[in-house]
Structures are given as structure tokens and as C-alpha cells.
From TrEMBL:
The keyword Mitochondrion applies. It comes from Aspergillus bertholletiae. The keyword Glycoprotein does not apply. It comes from the Eukaryota. Residues 80-126 form the Aminoglycoside phosphotransferase domain. GO terms for cellular component: mitochondrion. It is found in: Mitochondrion. Keywords: Mitochondrion, Transit peptide. This is Altered inheritance of mitochondria protein 9, mitochondrial. Belongs to the AIM9 family.
Length: 302
């Protein structure tokens, strides 16, 4: 028998947080500590606008570590914190179905990001609707908006199925405030996703603090001037992520640039180059060309 350790293993190893028998507060603090360690030891690779400096990340994580223990005592949150196995990267490409019945799942692959997290960490409720300015959109924008609406409809079907077959999961989905869910989900990914999502969850939590029912004052506060600055940055980040999702849709790719094997990769690459030039042309109206290239959605590996 071969012992499994860091020197030898069968298959890939994803080193992350290893914890056992901990409370919700300990989990949140461990997630923040993981980001702290990553930020202090490694250089930040800026992806997207307003990614934040190391100081920004350290301050944001410090604020999160003050808020998390207070929230962890929140009774409603505790009720939705049952440890749950999460795949971490579950999509249609990782699900095998029976060739005689596509509704029969026979296996799931790529478990390297598996984790055990609170039940409330699942994605929140969605609204399957078209944008209010849908009639003013160009054809490509309308196509993307319809695809997003259809995806939301599928999510609604999932929510309805939970009510019927697993009410406990549905309650975990609906009881936890979305800002609290985002706080826990963004705390250990600031080094990858930037500081804005974490700051936004902290701001929303502070604004709704008394509605939660915690008598102590919120440990996190933000000045009015900083709040206006954050809202502008948040709007720009959301625009960037929407355009990124739209680009993924056009190229039928994921965040790492993978495309389905049945596609002609040369044609996909050509379309990518065209989209990149359009993006640089548009962004260069306000940014230097090199900065526009840096903000592109795919890493240049050439």
C-alpha cells in the first residue's frame, strides 16, 4: 500500500483549507485567512477593473473577519448552515447521462474543487425576465438577453423542484440573505475576483444590519464619499462582467478559454481576435491601449 501525502498522490491535488468539526464562524475566518495568506505570499494578477491593491484586499478581509463572527451567531443563518457537499465546477460538460435516457445521470467528473460548505452557499434566487431596455438593444444584445432569461427560467425550474423534492435545500436557498451568502463566497476569492464583490457584500450587510436582528452595532461602516466611489466602481465592474459573459457566449468558451471539441478552433480563435480588437478600440477611448489589453477577458499565453 502506498501512503498518500503531499509528495505522492494518485490524480491532481488541490491544496485548500482543510478543517473539521468547526463552527460557522471558524469557517468564515478560515476562508479569510486563506485569502490573507495568498495575498501576502503571491503577486496579485489583476483581472478586471478596480481589482484593488494588496492594501485594499487586506483592509477588506480585516473588516470581513470582524463581521463574520457576529453574523455566525444569527439564528436563521445557523438553521441554513448544514454542511453540504459542493462539486465546485458542476456544469453540463461535467455530467454524464445514459445514452438511452438523457434524464438519467450516470456520473459526474472533475471533482478537484469539491468542498463541504454551508447549505446556504448555493446560488440565490433568480428572476427570469428581460432587461427593461430590451427594445432598445441591438440584435446581438437581444440574443444574449434572451439566452440569460432562458437560463434563469431553468434555474426557476430547479427552485420549484427543490420545493417538491428537497424542501430543506429550498429553505436554505431562500432564508439566507444574498449579501451574507456573497460575503462567505467572496472572502476566499478576492485574490482572483478582486475586492469589489467583498466590499459590496460588507456595505449591504451594514445597511441591513438591524434587520438581521443583531443588537450589537455593525463592525463595518463606510463614509458617504467612499460609498459613492464604491457604487461607481461596482457599476463598472458589473458592466465588465456582463460583457465578459456575453463574450463567453459568443465564443462558446469558459473562463479559461476552453471551447467544445466539436467547434472549429481556428474559427473560434479568429472570432476571438476580432472581438479583442473591437474591445481595445472601444476601451482605448478612455484608457491606454495596454490597459485595455490587460482588462481583456482571456489571458494571453503566447
Amino acid at each position: 500500500m502506498i501512503s498518500i501525502n503531499d509528495d505522492y498522490c494518485i490524480g491532481p491535488v488541490f491544496k485548500s483549507i482543510v478543517v473539521s468539526k468547526i463552527c460557522l464562524s471558524d469557517l468564515g475566518l478560515a476562508l479569510a485567512s486563506y485569502s490573507f495568506k495568498h495575498i501576502k505570499l503571491k503577486a496579485l494578477i489583476h483581472r478586471g477593473p478596480h481589482f484593488g491593491t494588496k492594501t485594499d484586499h487586506i483592509q477588506g478581509l480585516g473588516a470581513a473577519m470582524k463581521v463574520i463572527p457576529k453574523l455566525a451567531s444569527y439564528t436563521t443563518l445557523q438553521r441554513s448552515s448544514r454542511p453540504t457537499l459542493w462539486h465546485g465546477d458542476l456544469h453540463l460538460g461535467h455530467i454524464f447521462v445514459w445514452n438511452r435516457d438523457s434524464s438519467a445521470i450516470v456520473g459526474k467528473i472533475d471533482w478537484q474543487y469539491v468542498s463541504i460548505m454551508p447549505a446556504f452557499m448555493q446560488f440565490g434566487m433568480v428572476k427570469p425576465e428581460l432587461p427593461p431596455n430590451f427594445d432598445e438593444m441591438d440584435p446581438d444584445e437581444k440574443t444574449f438577453a434572451i439566452a440569460e432569461r432562458n437560463q434563469a427560467l431553468l434555474s426557476k425550474c430547479y427552485e420549484g423542484t427543490l420545493v417538491k423534492h428537497h424542501l430543506e435545500s429550498y429553505l436554505a436557498l431562500t432564508r439566507a440573505d444574498s449579501a451574507i451568502r456573497r460575503l462567505f463566497s467572496s472572502t476566499d476569492t478576492t485574490w482572483k475576483d478582486g475586492i469589489v464583490p467583498l466590499c459590496d457584500s460588507l456595505i449591504q450587510i451594514s445597511e441591513e444590519w438591524h434587520q438581521v436582528g443583531i443588537s450589537e452595532p455593525c463592525p463595518y461602516q463606510i463614509a458617504d464619499g467612499d460609498l459613492l466611489k464604491h457604487r461607481l466602481e461596482l457599476s463598472q465592474c458589473r458592466d465588465w462582467h456582463e460583457l465578459k459573459a456575453y463574450t463567453h457566449e459568443l465564443l462558446q468558451s469558459d473562463d479559461d478559454g476552453w471551447v467544445p471539441p466539436q467547434l472549429d478552433f481556428d474559427k473560434v480563435q479568429l472570432r476571438h481576435d476580432e472581438l479583442l480588437q473591437l474591445y481595445i478600440q472601444k476601451e482605448s477611448e478612455e484608457l491606454p491601449e495596454e490597459e485595455a489589453k490587460r482588462l481583456w477577458f482571456y489571458t494571453d499565453r503566447t
